[in-house]
Design brief:
four-stranded mixed sheet; Alpha-Beta Plaits; three-stranded antiparallel sheet; alpha+beta
């Protein structure tokens, strides 16, 4: 058995012990497990974030395809680091939401109906929370926050327990069947550390996605925040998301 698989098996058996589970829930995993995946001190100057201008998204799905290509995400329709949802608001006040294959092939045209008052597209992804519940519940420190605020998964330490998947309130995580480890959007961390844009931002034909640094006046995010009404998903959860939406409809969750 490979060393990584041996470690995962040991940690999985360890977490099955009642007293370990109790200590994790009481003290937190970061105080019980050290090294390998724990982030450095939270003193980094750069804080990356993404803006989404909902009124500019046309639902073309190029961002979804670019993400899968860039990050080797499985092509099956239920594995996504980012996806696009279509909202159709009816005259009865109800919102119908669909996302065929995550929007990767665009959306089928719908017939004009007096019952549909408005429709729009909403790209979604990991919200890179400043107070991430996924980090809190990870029993081995495999999910961690970098000094520049990006949430990553150390696949060498992840034991595939799915705690982080269950804890994410945005449905932004999945278990990769090839590695048996958790996966999600990383803002294309390998690209942004080279001062490149995330793949989804680079291919967007309408500049619906904007990437930059928080607190930096030269960042395009600064102009977006200054010129628009900004919302985040599920603000009542106090996770402090770093994916910012402009002019988001109240029906979006």
């Amino acid at each position: 058995m490979a060393p990584v698989e041996q470690r995962r098996g040991f940690l999985a058996r360890l977490m099955a012990l009642p007293w370990v589970a109790f200590l994790v829930s009481t003290l937190g995993a970061d105080r019980l497990f050290a090294g390998g995946g724990q982030s450095a001190s939270e003193g980094g100057e750069r804080k990356f974030a993404m803006g989404v201008q909902v009124d500019r998204c046309i639902g073309c799905g190029l961002c979804v395809d670019a993400c899968k290509t860039e990050n080797d995400v499985l092509r099956e329709p239920f594995f996504f680091r980012t996806w696009v949802e279509r909202y159709q608001l009816g005259s009865d006040g109800e919102a119908h939401v669909d996302s065929p294959r995550g929007g990767i092939n665009g959306f089928p045209a719908t017939e004009d109906s007096p019952d549909v008052m408005r429709s729009f597209f909403v790209p979604k992804l990991c919200n890179q929370c400043d107070k991430p519940p996924c980090v809190q519940v990870c029993p081995v420190g495999a999910t961690y926050k970098t000094p520049d605020g990006v949430i990553l998964v150390d696949h060498e330490y992840c034991i595939g327990c799915r705690y982080c998947i269950q804890a994410c309130p945005y449905g932004a995580r999945y278990l990769d069947p090839r590695t048996k480890t958790a996966d999600k959007c990383t803002f294309c961390y390998h690209r942004i550390k080279q001062d490149l844009l995330p793949a989804c931002v680079e291919v967007c034909p309408t500049q619906a996605r904007i990437f930059g640094e928080l607190g930096t006046r030269s960042s395009p995010l600064h102009r977006m925040k200054r010129m628009n009404s900004i919302q985040v998903l599920k603000p009542e959860l106090n996770t402090s998301p770093k994916v910012l939406y402009s002019n988001l409809d109240g029906e979006v969750r």
